[in-house]
Amino acid sequence: MKNISTRKKALEINLNPHLYGTFAEIGAGQEVARWFFKAGGASGTIAKSISAYDMIFSDSIYGQEESGRYVCESRVNKMINYEYDLLESRLRSHRGDDCEFFSFANTVAARNYHLTNESHGWIGLKYKRKGDEECSSIVLHVRMLDVHNQDQQDTLGLIGVNLVYHCFHLPSRLEECVDSLLENIASKRIEINYVKTTGDQFSNWDDRLINLQLVKQGLTPAILFDRHGEILLCSERLYKKNIMVVRGSYRPPTLVNLEMINKGLSSFAKDHQLKESNIECMAEITTGNLTTDGDLSNEDFLTRVQLINALGQNVLITNFKKYYNLTRFLSGFKAKNMAIVLGAYNFSQIFKDEYVENEGGILEAFGHLFRKNVNVYLMPYFSDDGSVMYQSSNIECPKGFLPLLDYIRSLGQVKDIEGVDTSILHIYSRKVLEMIISGKKGWEELVPDSVAETINEECLFGHPCELN
């Protein structure tokens, strides 16, 4: 799709006789509406433009928030629903069924005068294309990365126009859908880390795939799904929580993966005197582990999310190949305690030179990984001949790094998972996958029951169901 200037997009919307809507913007000026007014012909498109900055005024229109916050998803949804309903009740009989109403809203915390706050916001659009279809809506969460308030306002205006324009010109490919939101915006000016859609216009889209595109295209480092596959905002779900992340390929999830989750959770809870229910547990997959034949396969991604959900687990998708980048990311949510659960073999790989990507070398990397509130729990593994079980006490490490490993062990931040069933350590996901694809019997015994049932019922991972 060829890029169109922001002004031309606004003008095209203004000159479309079928489109008519309202703009409600809180927190960063009327930056989106401003583009439509400047483009010309705004009277043909804008029924109303409003900035309800005062909290009392805002609450009297949209109602109070239980959380007491105004920059939140609930607020932007109330805004687009209220304004859209107002259009329908006041103007439908006058405008007729051919009129395509829309309501745009944003609620934003732009950079304050002292440059001390987190700059982020929620942006939403609700609209209907045909009289007999269900209303559609799309809601985004963004982090504004410009340093100065005025620059952030400018960026907000650009992405708002893009959202309105492209909802009425939906591209056919996921990549184009995400790209369209950032047209005419320089890189690193804004981060989109959450997209949620509803309604007939998005019936052929999958929110999980849209949000995966955000990670694939470098617009956010991580996305989070709950155990039902619904998109969550990391900063809201993980803020000041106890967090446990279990990294794996989960292709498919095996009994070893489930053991790492369950026993890792109990070890973490015991060490910090926590209830397991007070720990945010996530199965994490890096984009490197999603790669299939040089690309991220959407089908493969959805399969893994579905199977992890079948275990009753949340799913964190990240672009962090290095564990220290993962803990650095999670620490931004002011986590109380953090646990990283991984295989002992994978832990041994962090002592290799290629693991480090920063100027401070491995010492800086370890400083980020082993923050004071971080524990690493290791799943043991056997040598190829089965004669040696490697764990934290005898993990393989280059001699030059042994003093560093000894120091970390002395801090008690690297521990073995307690109570592991060592009889299952021979199970590897790649071998189970080979058995599934080839139709070889016995693979069901190597994975949790819910995983086996889902794979058999839906013929996942190329399982030749006709052999059942």
Layout of helices and strands:
Elements: H1 6-14, E1 19-26, H2 31-39, E2 46-50, H3 55-62, H4 73-95, E3 100-109, E4 120-127, E5 136-144, H5 149-167, H6 174-181, E6 190-198, H7 207-216, E7 222-225, E8 231-232, H8 234-237, E9 242-247, H9 255-271, E10 279-286, H10 287-290, E11 291-292, E12 295-296, H11 298-310, E13 314-318, H12 323-331, E14 338-343, H13 344-348, H14 361-369, E15 374-379, E16 381-382, E17 389-390, H15 402-411, E18 414-416, H16 429-438, H17 449-458
Parallel strand pairs: 1-2, 1-3, 9-10, 9-14, 10-13, 14-15, 15-18
Antiparallel strand pairs: 3-4, 4-5, 5-6, 7-8, 7-13, 11-12, 16-17
How would you describe what is shown here?
By secondary structure, this protein is an alpha/beta fold. The protein has 2 domains: 6-220, CinA-like (Maf protein, Alpha-Beta Complex), CATH 3.90.950; 236-424, Rossmann fold, CATH 3.40.50. The protein contains 17 helices and 18 strands. It has helices spanning 6-14, 31-39, 55-62, 73-95, 149-167, 174-181, 207-216, 234-237, 255-271, 287-290, 298-310, 323-331, 344-348, 361-369, 402-411, 429-438, 449-458, and strands at 19-26, 46-50, 100-109, 120-127, 136-144, 190-198, 222-225, 231-232, 242-247, 279-286, 291-292, 295-296, 314-318, 338-343, 374-379, 381-382, 389-390, 414-416. The strands form 4 sheets. Strands 8-7-13-10-9-14-15-18 form an 8-stranded mixed sheet, with helices on both faces. A hairpin with a 5-residue loop joins strand 7 and strand 8 (231-232). Helix 6 crosses helix 7 (207-216). It is elongated and about 80 Å long. The relative contact order is 0.08.
